[in-house]
Specification:
alpha/beta; seven-stranded mixed sheet; two-stranded parallel ribbon; 13 helices; 11 strands; PD-(D/E)XK nuclease-like domain-containing protein; PDDEXK_12
Length: 475
């Protein structure tokens, strides 16, 4: 046994230690396998000693070949400056509607009188004057504001009103001036503190609208030229209504081109209203469209005895789905029987999505609703063109207007045009003047156009015809 141990020990001593160490050392990981999972980007420089990322990842010292020739490297291509994606997206989405929008921009002043629709040319002239600060400062305050504002030749006070007591006019003008100072202060604070849209609406936009559409601002007739001196309908008033929570009714949803379903950009349904005329399937409506609502509408209120109001009430009574009667494109009861004339969308600052998209969808729904009601009254008769619909967007201090003109199968959208703002007192007076002109346009041209749309006789004293074309009550 001892002999065997000595032979085994002699054999072990004859083996070289270095060879044994090589055999038991584990092999290094394959470099090719590590590189295969990472896509190497081309180098951004033309240095000769480029860095091998595999060596860096393994913690090895770089041993680049200093004598290797540099490979030619093409410069990184410059990214072209693109137009605003917000505007591009808005345009493409509005063009995809079954009744598409064509955004025309706004013509120059010399071309506006021929290119704009006839029913808003007189309004345009008034807005153009307000934009250029002509006759926006009340005549009664000309001395009080002369030093600060009227020294500029571009700012001209309005003409004195006729047939009114100067003391009463001055008191009313002073009241409005005090309100504007207060609103201007709130607007400046909202901008400095970066307040949200709801704060702008409650502190700035709502109070501005309240001055024109609910308060009695006397002496404003002097702001209007002969272009708008049309007879006002008796007891017709214009009210603004906040509609931030009002969705588009299902029977007014605008359709997408080439499909049999409602627009994918349309608001979520606010009820079970169903279109009585159309057999279009409404099953694929995108419920994420709450952002397509607007903030305010200007509606026309008339006495129940007015011919147009009687016709509206008759139509609403004949269309009652699930206990929800409505005349406009929304089921919101505050405007159920009052014609929407103007829509307003507000933003605290320029958003990612253009507010024009919201206004466009809302206006498209209104036009669809008006066409459906017209066909219910006269299914076989030809339809004229609807009156042009003003659309207003207020982004921070800046107020602008668009005009949506009905062409039958398409809608031409003209704008934007500045109508004033809240950044200073003169801009607020320009905005007030613009809103007054819009109010007067609603009480005259808009009301006359909608009276003709629903085929109401000029006399207006005959009893309304029976309702054979109206659908039965489904409620």
């Amino acid at each position: 046994m001892a002999q065997k141990r000595r032979l085994l020990q002699a054999w072990l001593d004859s083996i070289e230690p270095s060879g044994f160490q090589d055999e038991i050392t584990p092999p290094a990981p394959k470099r090719a396998r590590l590189r295969s999972s990472v896509l190497r980007s081309p180098p951004l420089t033309i240095e000769n000693d480029s860095v091998d990322m595999s060596d860096v990842s393994r913690g090895r010292k770089r041993t680049g070949d200093k004598e290797a020739k540099a490979r030619p490297i093409f410069p990184m291509p410059k990214r072209p400056k693109s137009t605003s994606p917000r505007k591009t997206k808005t345009k493409s989405q509005l063009e995809e509607l079954a009744k598409p929008f064509h955004i025309r921009g706004f013509p120059s002043h010399t071309q506006a009188h021929t290119r704009l629709p006839a029913d808003i040319r007189a309004l345009y002239r008034q807005l153009f004057q307000a934009k250029n600060l002509m006759h926006v400062i009340p005549f009664e305050l000309r001395e009080q504001l002369r030093t600060e504002y009227l020294s500029e030749t571009s700012v001209k006070p309005s003409s004195p009103a006729k047939g009114e007591q100067n003391t009463q006019l001055h008191d009313n003008a002073a009241t409005v001036l005090s309100s504007l100072y207060h609103i201007g202060q709130r607007a400046m604070e909202a901008s400095v503190y970066a307040r949200h849209e709801s704060a702008w609406n409650s502190l700035v936009h709502g109070p501005i609208l309240d001055l024109v559409f609910t308060s009695n601002i006397l002496g404003t007739d002097s702001m209007f030229s002969d272009d708008l001196q049309l007879p006002l309908q008796e007891n017709t008033s214009v009210r603004y209504e906040q509609v931030t929570g009002a969705s588009i009714a299902s029977d007014a949803l605008p359709m997408r081109s080439g499909t049999d379903t409602a627009s994918l950009y349309s608001p979520s349904l606010a009820g079970g209203s169903v279109d009585y005329q159309s057999d279009i399937t409404m099953s694929k409506v995108d419920n994420r469209g709450d952002s397509k609502r607007v903030d305010y509408v200007l509606v026309m209120d008339m006495p129940e005895t007015a011919p147009l109001q009687r016709e509206i009430s008759r139509i609403v009574a004949g269309i009652d789905c699930c206990g929800m009667s409505h005349f406009n494109q929304t089921l919101y009861r505050a405007v159920a029987k009052s014609l929407i004339a103007v829509s307003i969308e507000t933003k605290a600052e320029l958003p990612q999505y253009d507010p024009l998209l919201q206004l466009g969808i809302w206006a498209s729904a209104w036009q669809k609703r008006m066409y459906d009601l017209r066909r219910a009254i006269d299914p076989r008769g030809p339809c004229p063109r609807l009156v042009t619909m003003p659309l207003i967007q207020a982004v921070g201090h800046k107020w602008e207007i668009y005009f949506a003109s009905d062409l039958g199968n398409t809608i031409d959208l003209f704008g934007p045009m500045a109508i004033g703002g809240t950044e200073d007192l003169v801009s607020m007076y320009a905005l007030l003047s613009s809103l007054q002109s819009i109010k007067h346009w609603i009480q005259t041209i808009f009301q006359d156009s909608m009276t003709a749309w629903f085929m109401i006789g000029e006399e207006g004293d005959e009893e309304p015809a029976p309702d054979p074309a109206l659908p039965p009550n489904d409620g």
